[in-house]
Design brief:
Blueprint lengths: L1 E3 L11 E5 L2 E5 L5 E2 L1 E7 L6 E7 L20 E5 L4 E8 L4 E7 L10 E2 L8 E4 L5 E6 L10 E7 L4 E2 L4 E2 L10 E8 L2 E8 L7 E7 L7 E2 L6 E2 L8 E11 L5 E9 L11 E10 L2 E4 L8 E3 L11 E6 L8 E4 L7 E3 L4 E4 L12 E6 L5 E8 L8 E9 L2 E10 L2 E10 L2 E9 L4 E8 L3 E8 L2 E9 L16 E7 L8 E12 L1
């Protein structure tokens, strides 16, 4: 079987996977973006299609005023054949803590949250052979719980523990133990965890026990997955894994990693990768102990045609799964019409920790050409609208229309930390603009078409919207439609009529 990694490119980190029959389902983290927890479907583990989000209502997901890279952390998805329901368990780190939701159809609406009174992050569920359910998360107060992880049987209708939480195996002593999952294979229970932090020292470790609550013995081959000593490798920071057994008896691991551009810099976010798992002396071996590659050639599975070329287009007449809002949307800002999306700015802009008029789609490949058509003729000089290459509030590149000295102008602005720089600004006569962004691994080239003439606006380095250039963040770059009144409610609406993205691996 041959395929290319990442299997889900772009900002889709912390993958978790389950199956029902011949269908696989996978979820990832979403942090401050709404709707939350994207969910994907596949029948072959290589080609994935997004089918929705698990958290689509504010009653499920309150993101008001949360900081960047807070909100929804790692999710786990599990199918329980005892009640024929899917469960997704996660943490809203800034609001309600650990909770889970459930659904009969993973592509449909999910329940309101059921809260779990246990601290920590990265919760997981395990359904044992007898139908009992067990909840595990990492323990934030390691001075009390030296193990780093706590588990207890739980009543799934109420979220109440049936017994006090029990400390489990805590890993091999690396920092940030997280992402616990429990599996059973033959006579062994396995506890899989992530350690080392979700940076260059990231790793996956495992232990096993004959009984569910231990004691667990660590694998002598730990860590069973890491790229901590692969300095020159394109793929870095692999870890945070989940296992799945397919219907042919083959085992696989999904996990996060990132593709570096400049040495150790990455801007697309942490992505979802796939590797085979074999078993030696009842211990799992990921990818035969070898580093994870872009081009994978594995001795299990079967030949599968993988969709490698990605072309996306929209007329913005309706919302689709690819687009997300920044925090809970101000619904007064958005109107999908037969002409396209009317976007009206509120008082917030892209540098505020708030919910500006923002609709973003993830940049999923290092080399892309993105084209957007829009119209905007603002009434007031404080109004602006356009397209942003957006990482977070203090890291974005914006191409926008505004009024300067009562003249309609097209501007290109860079926001990097506390530096705000207008790279280019020019008067324009037409309020109808095509914005063109050429994305390359090391830079963006920004342009526009005005009155049928293509204009080069400038370039920007990808490292300036990279995680490593700022305070640690967990997300990735978006192409974002936006509008702002910059302190007051906007009076004018921008009309976005076309979006087109062409990319290849």
């Amino acid at each position: 079987m041959n395929y290319k990694n990442p299997i889900i490119p772009g900002f889709y980190p912390d993958p978790s996977i389950c199956k029902k029959g011949n269908d696989f389902y996978l979820v990832t983290s979403s942090f401050e973006f709404f709707p939350g927890v994207p969910i994907f479907h596949s029948t072959d583990l290589v080609n994935w299609t997004q089918i929705g989000h698990c958290l689509t209502r504010k009653s499920q997901l309150d993101l008001e005023n949360i900081p960047a890279s807070k909100g929804i952390y790692a999710a786990t998805i599990r199918y329980n054949h005892h009640d024929d329901l899917f469960y997704m368990v996660t943490t809203n780190t800034t609001k309600i803590g650990n909770f889970y939701v459930y659904a009969k159809d993973p592509a449909g609406e999910w329940s309101d949250p059921i809260l779990v009174d246990q601290d920590g992050i990265d919760p997981s569920l395990y359904f044992d052979d007898d139908g009992t359910a067990h909840f595990i998360s990492n323990a934030r107060d390691r001075s009390v719980y030296k193990s780093g992880f706590l588990m207890a049987p739980i009543h799934m209708k109420t979220g109440k523990f049936l017994k006090p939480s029990t400390p489990l195996w805590g890993g091999i002593g690396q920092n940030s133990p997280e992402a616990p999952h429990i599996y059973k294979r033959e006579d062994w229970y396995y506890q899989l965890v992530a350690e080392g932090g979700t940076e260059l020292n990231h790793m996956v470790t495992i232990a096993r026990s004959k009984t569910l609550y231990g004691a667990y013995e660590p694998c002598p081959l730990n860590p069973i997955l890491t790229h901590q000593n692969q300095k020159g490798h394109l793929i870095q920071a692999v870890g945070h894994a989940d296992f799945i057994e397919d219907n042919q008896g083959n085992w696989w691991a999904v996990f996060l990693g990132y593709r570096q551009t400049h040495q150790y810099f990455h801007h697309l976010g942490r992505e979802t990768f796939l590797a085979p798992v074999t078993w030696v002396d009842d211990w799992p071996v990921i990818n035969d102990g070898k580093p994870i590659e872009i081009d994978m050639h594995v001795p299990i599975g079967q030949g599968i045609a993988q969709n490698l070329y990605h072309e996306y287009s929209t007329d913005f007449k309706k919302w689709d799964f690819n687009w997300v809002y920044l925090r809970n949307p101000d619904e007064n800002c958005y109107r999908f019409t037969d002409l396209g999306l009317q976007l009206t700015g509120n008082a917030y802009n892209l540098s505020d920790i708030a919910n500006p008029a923002f609709l973003g789609i993830r940049q999923r490949h290092l080399e892309q050409r993105a084209v957007f058509d829009f119209m905007f003729n603002p009434v007031d000089c404080n109004e602006e609208a356009g397209i942003s290459v957006f990482y977070k509030f203090d890291a974005h590149f914006d191409i926008f229309i505004s009024r300067v000295d009562d003249k309609l102008c097209l501007s290109f602005r860079k926001v990097v930390g506390d530096i705000i720089h207008i790279e280019n600004q020019m008067p324009i006569e037409s309020d109808k603009i095509t914005i063109i962004i050429h994305a390359e691994p090391l830079k963006y080239r920004m342009g526009a078409i005005v009155n049928h003439q293509e204009i080069f606006l400038g370039q920007a380095l990808t490292r300036h919207v990279s995680t490593e250039a700022h305070e640690l963040g967990f997300t990735g770059v978006f192409y974002a439609l936006y509008a702002s009144g910059n302190g007051t409610k906007g009076k004018s609406s921008a009309l976005f009529t076309r979006g087109m993205i062409e990319s290849s691996m």
